[in-house]
Amino acid sequence: MSFVCSLPILRRTILSTFLSLVAAGLVTAFFVPSAPAADQLTIYSGRGERLIKPVLDAFTASTGIQIELLSSGTTELVNRLKAEGDRTPADLLITNDAGSLELARTAGLLRPLNMREVERAIPAQFRAPDNAWVGLSGRFWIVVYNHTMVKPDQVKSLLDLADPKWKDKIAIPNSGSEYLQAGVSVIRATYGDEKTRQFLQGLKTNADSQVYQKSSQIVDAVAKGQVALGIVNHYYVYRYLATQPDAPIAVVMPDQQEGGMGAIMNVSGVGVVKSTKHLDSAKLLVEFLVAQAGQKLFADLDKEYPLHPDVKADPALMERKSFRAALVPLSKLAELREPTINMIEQVGLR
Amino acid sequence: MSTIRQQLASPLQLLVLATAGIILLPLGYVTAQALSADPVVWSRLWATRIPELLFNTISLAASVAVITLVLGVSTAWLVTRVDFPGRRLWEGALVLPLAMPTYVLAYVYSYLLGFGGPVEHLWQLVAGPQARIFSPHSYGGATLVMALDTFPFVYLLSRSALLSMNVSFEEVARASGVSRLSTLWRVTLPLMRPSIAAGVALVILYVVSDFGAVSLLRYQTLTYAVFQQMTGRSDNTAASILSLLLVGLALIFLITERWFRQRSRFYQTTGHYRAPQRHQYGWLGTVAVTGYLGLIVGAAFALPASLLIQWSLSPEAQATLDSRFFGFVWNSGILAASAATGGVLIGLPLAYLASRRPTMLNLGCLQAAYAGYVLPGPVAALAVLVLFTKLAPVFYGSVLILIVAYVIHFLPAGLQSLEPALQHISPNLEEVARTLGLGMRDTWRRVTLPLVRNGFVVAWVLMFLQTMKELPATLLLRPVGFDTLAIRVWMEASEEYYQLAAPSALLIVLLSLPALALLVSKDWRAA
């Protein structure tokens, strides 16, 4: 008894389909990003927006070049660049991790640069051999502790955090964090897989549910005394202290003991996307970021270590020459990445 | 006549098939990727993540389902069958939590219940300075937040059922000497069963595919794990495997719900009802009812909303209110409206055919449409992205692919109301209209459409609200310069900048309110 499925409905359906197609067309005409003007750059950025936007705003102020910023996760953006191929609207990729830049370079997503300004400003170990990516600022993976709960000499190495005495007293970043992946890669390269696995097991047990998505949350948890210790990039601590100078937190620069591996270093960096149609503007931005003025912004606003040898870090930070960095080259982070992620997952870190 | 009918039916049939096909394509992509994955990846996941994730997901869905069932049905019954001062006000207020995204509620509660938060301070006044309360970053916390946020789905559908129910069934029972409680148990609740089942299914699907709340509360579910796999890894094989499990899980819920609903299909025989008689409660009853409703609405809406207002008025938050802000508002509104309209247009033929010609094929197409909702946001996003790159690269980087992902993702939310709306009309009504000489067009315009209008409005509003709040797919698919309010909330809240997240969150709530007002307005209910 189904008379009802009939002409009027059909007409309506066809009509509404047609209308929706027209609407879709209009929407498309409206929203397909029209080719950006010549004095505009589109940037995919894996860095926290509040860390990078002030620097980019300074660039816009001095050159008049407008910037469209898409902030997201670093790995996610590299995946996106891969999927988008030549059609990507992005002109530059900015990340919080050298390994991701190297992966993007080996995937052929970035464009080699021949720029004397870059070579003069940034030491060779902080950029790709062909300058397809260029490091901008240095960061160290440190231990932040609450000095009402822990004495500074109780922790000397990152590996100490796996000690059972810190059960339920530490906070760590989640397994998707590029810092964590890079840090574990360096530990693997230094101590081998077995020891790294034991370290991760201990870390997992000690942190339990204190696994955070953002480093700023870890610093906050330590400052409030929710946990005694945490592993984060150094600048989150100094940025926190800049706004809340009375917070009971301090930094251990780990693994400086005799025979220790040295502090784990990573760099944030930038690469020009291969298919960019605004190469000149893009180069102008790279030039701005590596020059002394740009480097000083990273030092002052973000509390990072500038990579330009002539630019000083914020005086609140430990003098860069007073501690050692681990000896694993940054470009090696890329090839170490995949097995590291597998190990992190096997151990079952969240 | 019969051949004409077949000819006419087939294009509609084709359209439905095509729609189902388009919805199934992303699922097919994900399935293919998962099944072609290296067995090593499968065994690694089984050995490490899958047991924990499955357990976490199922137990969260179960506890939320039970709590929302109790909250939703009890509140719906109170506002429709009891008379107490302010009843109309509560009737509307109970829908308000729908305007509050789960991640907003999650971040408000991680502040309230969090370490060193206000609730803990209060508790320490009572129980001593070292006392701790339960952490919101746990199973309990996730259950609380999800239940408070999703019970209105059950409430809305139960309330609709109670209002459109022909009271003569109940009156007959009462007249035959059945007690009031027994009538409720043996007549009213069974009559509500299709709506209740639909509401709870909606809640379960929502919980299972939620990303915002569980990630802020750091409670590991399958959907959260999929997002972590996708954003933390360069290939998404593991993400596809976890998604396949998720889809399997949701299919089990859907089939259960279907089976449940198949057993109880009721037709209404008249379009004119008297309002049901409302019980009069004494002052004690009134206080109890008001307290109960106040507690629920307070915890799910009033308290979080007032915190948001307070935070939004802080100087830090005021500083973020610049011209960028208008862009976010515009983006959110236009995206949500397009997705809701698209969803209703696509959902209508699916629901119609499944209801009027429940062949295996049509029911299959309808079920296919439900797959989108349980394809977690991030994977739906990625699959849509890859499909568009292959099929229509012109649209690449446009808002259109984001809207397609929304429609696929949220169509089930709309179908859940389109479907019962169509089911509730007896086909006899249309046939009678035809017999009495009304043309097909007039039958549709004067009989069918007015009867299903409620369902349409509810469907559109539900999809609008959910799209506005959507997070993971927006994060992954948004074109450059197309940040929405949800994205802004997420960016600030995930770093616990409560004040900075508040203005965007408050705006989502405010933009949702007119839509909600439509939901509870007399206008469509009277139809």
Describe the protein's architecture and organization:
The complex is a heterodimer of chains A (350) and B (527). Chain A is of the alpha/beta class and 350 residues long. Chain A has 2 domains: 152 residues, Periplasmic binding protein-like II (D-Maltodextrin-Binding Protein, domain 2); 139 residues, D-Maltodextrin-Binding Protein, domain 2, CATH 3.40.190.10. In chain A, strand 1, helix 2 and strand 2 form a beta-alpha-beta unit. Chain B is an all-alpha fold and 527 residues long. Chain B has a single domain, classed as MetI-like fold, CATH 1.10.3720. Chain B contains 24 helices and 2 strands. A two-stranded parallel sheet of chain B has the order 1-2. Chains A and B meet through helix 1, strand 2, helix 3, strand 6 and helix 8 of A and helix 1, helix 2, helix 11, helix 15 and helix 17 of B.
Question: Which structural traits does this protein have?
Answer:
heterodimer; A: 350 residues; alpha/beta; D-Maltodextrin-Binding Protein, domain 2; 2 domains; ten-stranded mixed beta sheet; 12 helices; disordered N terminus; B: 527 residues; mainly alpha; MetI-like fold; two-stranded parallel sheet; 2 strands; 79% helix; disordered C terminus
Give the topology:
The complex is a heterodimer of chains A (about 350) and B (about 525).
Chain A: H1 7-31, E1 40-45, H2 49-63, E2 66-71, H3 74-84, E3 92-95, H4 98-106, H5 116-121, E4 133-146, E5 170-173, H6 178-191, H7 193-207, E6 211-212, H8 215-224, E7 229-233, H9 234-243, E8 249-252, E9 264-272, H10 279-290, H11 292-302, E10 305-306, H12 332-347
Parallel strand pairs in A: 1-2, 1-3, 5-6, 5-7
Antiparallel strand pairs in A: 3-9, 4-7, 4-8, 4-9, 4-10
Chain B: H1 2-35, H2 39-48, H3 50-81, E1 82-83, H4 87-93, H5 102-112, H6 118-127, H7 139-164, H8 167-175, H9 180-209, H10 212-216, H11 222-232, H12 237-262, E2 279-280, H13 283-312, H14 315-318, H15 323-356, H16 360-374, H17 377-391, H18 399-424, H19 427-435, H20 440-469, H21 472-477, H22 485-493, H23 498-520, H24 522-525
Parallel strand pairs in B: 1-2
